[in-house]
Amino acid sequence: MDMEAVMKRMPPHSAEAEQAVLGAMLMNKDAIMVASEMLSGEDFYQTAYGILFDAVVELFHEGKPVDL
To answer: Gene3D superfamilies from the xrefs (predicted)?
Structure first.
């Protein structure tokens, strides 16, 4: 399969953007609220980032501290 065909099949994604969202969520509770209204864990290309996103949102909704 040539590179052009691969690029057409691969969904657009940005690891840096996903990291920025998660970083903001870890630093600011307001960012958790905003991000959780716009995104879900399934929106992340990197599976691990989606799992982390869902965990942060769940902790936030349970009123538990969000830290690493």
So the answer is: DNAb Helicase, Chain A
